[in-house]
## 1
Amino acid sequence: MPVRRFFLATPPSGTVAMLGDREAYHLIHVLRAQVGARVELIDGMGRLWSARVGAILGDRVRLVEVALLSETAAPEVRLTLIQAFCKSDRLAWILQKATELEVSEIYLVHARRSVVRISRDRQPAKLERWRTILVNAAKQCRRSTIPTLHPPLDCREVCETVESALKLLLHASPEAMPLKKLLRGRSWPSVAFAVGPEGGWSGEESQTFLRSGFQPADLGSSTLRTETAATVAAALLRYELFPGN
């Protein structure tokens, strides 16, 4: 069985590190780890360490023999997902799969047709929950980097913020080119792709994206749920653009 991974919020001091909060709770109470148990640590920025449990100190765990195993370089292709808000279970699925498929950045958008609205006062707690989902997904798929999750924005703000060599608007329209055809035989150092809510982007939102340099692209004749579209698009981009695929 692979060695369990944990997220290390504070860099190690020499060969010693401390785990607290959810990570320590999971190690102590769920896995019931004993002193001497071997673990791996990630910092979400590409560094991976090996370590052993040195002591269990109440709700914290002291790790010893911490040694750097590897340091992941930045990916040759940077994927940015722009995702309209959707129901919480579907958004959790999207965050998990985006992590597994090596998306680098995620922007959440208050779309006109989104069925979910997150008030400003609820955003900090929601962001913490969503980032926990990303951390858990990274540990599960044994990825040493964690996608950057940005606070929610509106369509115009996202268009003004995102910079990528190729920007794609997933949108059913006569002008849309099949994503597979658009990607085949070409390469870009960075790609942003925008996935709308269940009801699709509004006409005004679509025009905002197009005026900002996004190209319309589609995923075929079937109407896909938003979580399916996000996953399929990320998988196609990874397959077509990442070296070695």
## 2
Amino acid sequence: MRVLQLLVFSMLSLWPLRAAACDLALVLAVDVSGSVDAEEYRIQMDGLAAGLRDGVVSEALVKARAQVLLLQWSGESRQEVTLPWSEIRTFGDVEALAQAIEQAPRPWRNYSTAVGEALFLALEQFPAVEHCKRRVIDVSGDGFSNEGIEPREVHGALAAAGVTVNAIAIEQSEPDLTAYFFENVIRGEGAFVVSAASFADYPSRIRKKLVREVARQTAALPAGTERAVASLQ
């Protein structure tokens, strides 16, 4: 009888762990190529941190027990994982991630734009979080890919791994960038592109993008979150 009681207790103690499995693995891939000056870099990093702190976004990340990774990318062979996977269990975890993003050093300043290479590096990170139900790459960029493998060449591998790619196109110097990202970069069910007319628009646009990407897609949202999300569209 004692053995049976211990067995039942063990099964019940494991149940919350199963129920709280990771719902989302999110790679934040930020463009740091030569077309992004120091002020624009700061706008991106501070805007991204502010977007994560948004109440709807942070609540959805905690609810999803999300894993989040920061990748900075530029030209061919110049992409790096700046912040490895961070598990989000509490609002304190969200704040710690936001602060780390704000403090992250810029690795490069004067190189080309290799979107396909960035996607490939991001793809290589997902085996470490294979327990997560959804796998998403969030690409921010202000230019066409002009070096390395083409973004579409990575689509087959992304599809095989079940990875969705969304993008924010900063059209400050490339007015047709949204169309390019739509045709060549994004992929997966429900994939989308958000446009920012300039870097000045980036903070508000990345916030809305994260709301759509994280909160609307996260299963079993807390009561009332759907209404809050809808009000931000």
## 3
Amino acid sequence: MPVLLMRLDAPMQSWGTQSRFTVRDTGREPSKSAVIGLLCAALGVDRGDDARLADLAATRMAVRIDRPGTIMRDFHTAGGIRPGAAWKGRRYGVAKASGGTPDTVVSTRYYLSDAAFLVALQSDDRALLEACERALRAPVWPLFLGRRSFVPGRPIPIPGDGVRDTDDLMAALCGEPLCLRPREKPDERLRCVVEVDDLDAEVRRDQPLCFQNGERSFSLRYVEDKWIESADLPTEEVPSCTSAG
């Protein structure tokens, strides 16, 4: 069955699934909703196009954690008092939905620093995966890894043909080289998060149903942790391109 492979490697990434108000979380690896959103941006799929979203969301996903990165925290402020005679004491801040006086918004935002992932998406629709790969090479809208300021540190599509025919998702993850920077030593075992049909597996609410503003909704999917010995993978050296380079 065809599988699309993508590399997500950047100085900073954020994959939140439970963010509420002033605390923005991040997962340890990309969420399915974020990966599908990335493909929607590449393809130019409008937020209200639920039919095309459903086609993409029907894929099955697996992630190989090549470099787990470090969770970092950012204390973030927006708005506040702006001095100066021209402002005449008026507040400068973030607008409120209630229509009240704009004010300072303080938030705590978490992100992954210096992480790298190999993502595999499986579908019986080869044409869909091939269209996604072409779009990743020439995206309609800018691509980012969880937040608009977190741009990819290297191309997302893998070199050559990014759509492979493999027996299963783990076979796809085992067949792609581990890209190492000069003098980098990978972990002895690489964790893989694989989507499964087992209802007793770990539950995640990141299966996208709708991306429309004010109507965003997600359903459950089930995943299992599996492991690959890094010594069993072919390796490929790449130029240093992230914050730890």
